[in-house]
Amino acid sequence: MLKELIMPHLRAEAAETLRYEAQCRIQDLIYGCIGVISQLYINKYKIYTECQLAETRAEIALMNSDGQEPPQAQVDQQI
């Protein structure tokens, strides 16, 4: 299979990829490297939501430091 590559300079990279996929399959017989990809996606989503939360908290802190109330408190007072 590696001999059939059109670009011979990619053989080492292809061999390393096959080795990694085989190692993942040994560690996780059902999902293989897809399990790793799924876990990375979950981690990415968690980091994204944590960043969003930190940004929201920073905005609230900035509004409070300017003497303004957080947006939710303003909405509650209007009701």
Structural class: mainly alpha
Number of helices: 3
How much is the average pLDDT?
85
Count of domain modules: 2
Low-confidence stretches: none
Radius of gyration: 25 Å
Which percent range describes the beta-strand content? under 5%
Please provide the ordered H/E string of secondary-structure elements: HHH
Outline: elongated
Q: How many angstroms does the end-to-end distance come to? A: 69 Å
Please provide a written account of the structure.
InterPro entries: LOB. Residues 1-51 form the LOB domain. Belongs to the LOB domain-containing protein family. This is LOB domain-containing protein. The protein is an all-alpha fold and 79 residues long. It folds into two domains: 1-30, no CATH class; 34-79. The chain has helices at 11-27, 33-65, 71-78. It is elongated, with a radius of gyration of 25 Å. The model has no long low-confidence stretch (mean pLDDT 85).
Keywords, separated by commas or semicolons:
79 residues; mainly alpha; 2 domains; 3 helices
Quick recap of the structure?
Helices cover 73% and strands 0% of the residues. With 79 residues, it is mainly α.
